[in-house]
Amino acid sequence: MRDGSGAAGLDVGLPQPNAVSQSARPWPVWARWLEALGVALSPAVAALVLRLRLMAPSLLPDPAMHTSYIIEGRDVFTRYASLAGVGLLREGGRVGFLVPARLAYLAFGAVPGFLVTRYVFALIAVAPVYLLLRRLYSPAAGVAGLVVVLSSPVIVTAWGTDYPDSAVVSYALGAMACLVMPSAPRWRRAWLAAAGVLATLALWSHLVAIPLMAAALAAWLGVRLVRERAGLPGDLAVLAGVAVAVTGLLVLGSAVVLGRANFFWLTWEGYRFLSNPRMTAMNHSATWRWAPYVTYLLVPPAVVGAFAVAAIRRGRALPTPVLIVGVMAATQVAVFALLQFAGSVQTLEMHYFSSTLWAGVCLAFAVTLGELAGPLWDRPLARWLPAAVLLAVPLAYEAAPRVPAFGWLPFGVILAVTVIIAAAVAAACARIRQRAAAVVATGLALAVFAGAALVLTVTPIPDHPRFGDRALKHDPPADYADALGGSATTHIDEYRIITALPGLVGRATYPGEQILIWRISPGKYRYIRDAAGMYHDGYNSLSSHTVRLPRNDRRQIQARRPAEMLLLGDTAEPFPVAVRALARFRPSVMRTGVLRAGSLVMRVWLVRLGAYYHPPARPG
């Protein structure tokens, strides 16, 4: 292989792209190192230039439930091990995300560890994409691929919380790029092994990765069976062997850093819990009528349509890696749509799930761009036009980030069709004989292509009727509009508070020393709600948020027999009244504290219930 020469000299046993060689001379060693450094620094550069929001609002306590395992995983299992058999500790089984996040926390602390983990996730996503686009087309195309991923509001938002979609979207993107990576024969199995590692990490990060990666592998296998079967059994054996090896390492890692080796049981019990009819009815809407108001869901089919437009002119000459990427994206979109509208999984209505679809969407978007800009890659200056356009579009949006709320009809569909038409126009620009005119026309078409997709993504969901057959507990919409140019200051302060809570509460002194949360604060204090998520808010919290203790809360305390109550609020003034309301349980205040970060304040009282607490047994 000649560095800097597109796909020249590559052979993976698959038909290779007809990339144009930009230089007959190999790159000097210093240029290779400079290129690697540029890719390694690209997330930091993008964060500065595009003002990426480094942390996102959690919207639900669910991310904090995963944060609790990152900060004090052993303590969670010590307190609530009895809940594992009913699926309520399922978050602890998502070790593909939790193990690396826990290691980063131990090495760097809460907020720095969060940012280090996200930087690693960003590199996992962008490095394979850069190399894939570089080998298929040119280094300039690789840079354009970097910008596609790092400017995606969906991916930036997914990276912004401790929900495992932050890991899945990166692992899946890297796995798909590695799976189709053109390479010399001696490196072919190494790239397959890398794909297997990342795909396995995705699967053990969240169950939503199962249909995502299954669709990707099915597409890869289908195209290989049609175009190139040579070496396929051995390739499958490599993927299977790597999956077994990585799973074994995760067992060891989970045992060491989380204190629980058997995450298989946690995952299975979590699946059983979420798949029972009651939970399905609560989380999955029986209707499709909400969908036409969620405009960003038009982006995946629009990108698949644009890919088809860009690829159809190549016909059978379409390179196999490019074809696989397109089939992967189309298959994933179809599978997620079937699970949502014909099945019982909320793959599209819950943005923590639907965000993972953007791994294939971004890869297909980048490859489509590479196909549309094909005539530019051999031109010294024009080759950088696609990357410049992709950078200019989000910067223009940040200058005036005000997109009105609208649904599918009519403006959403118009923009989705615009994405496809812009791709067709860009493809047609290759026929313009005047070189300067062709470059300008292609640049304008790509700007419309990227701009329409961005507007579809960031458009707020408009007000719409409440449908009687929609799930009662549906996920609030994601805040994609502020992912580019938004501020993370408040979100980082919230994270500092919730991650400091376990240190104030302390660890359990014996197995089963449960804590119940009494959140005495107005609902507007989201960071206090998220702090309750550190102790599994939905199950371990009283329903009342006032100092009154209604009958159903007293019954919950009697049924759960907690050793301690954790009182949370923005002011401690009502806490003495709350303690008196617990008189029948023999309360005693064990610890009080104030957690501050920026302008945010949370008051904490830890109250021991003498009726249920028992001292830990002494050894021997």
Give an account of the 3D structure.
It is a single chain. Helices cover 58% and strands 5% of the residues. With 620 residues, it is mainly α. It folds into two domains: 29-49 and 87-458, no CATH class; 489-609. Helix 4 (110-136) runs parallel beside helix 7 (165-179) and helix 7 runs antiparallel to helix 8 (185-203).
β-strand number: 4
Query: Uncertain segments of ≥5 residues (pLDDT<50)?
Result: 1-24
Terminal CA distance:
68 Å
Secondary-structure element order, N to C:
HHHHHHHHHHHHHHHHHHHHEHHHEHEE
Shape: globular
Number of domains: 2
Structural class: mainly alpha
Overall residue-averaged pLDDT value? 91
Number of helices: 24
**Percentage of residues in DSSP E strands:** 5-15%
Secondary structure layout:
Layout: H1 29-49, H2 62-80, H3 95-108, H4 110-136, H5 139-150, H6 153-159, H7 165-179, H8 185-203, H9 209-227, H10 232-257, H11 263-275, H12 277-283, H13 299-312, H14 320-341, H15 351-354, H16 358-372, H17 385-399, H18 408-428, H19 435-458, H20 489-505, E1 515-519, H21 526-533, H22 537-540, H23 551-560, E2 564-569, H24 575-581, E3 587-597, E4 600-609
Parallel strand pairs: 1-2
Antiparallel strand pairs: 2-4, 3-4
Outline:
The protein has helices at 29-49, 62-80, 95-108, 110-136, 139-150, 153-159, 165-179, 185-203, 209-227, 232-257, 263-275, 277-283, 299-312, 320-341, 351-354, 358-372, 385-399, 408-428, 435-458, 489-505, 526-533, 537-540, 551-560, 575-581, and strands at residues 515-519, 564-569, 587-597, 600-609.
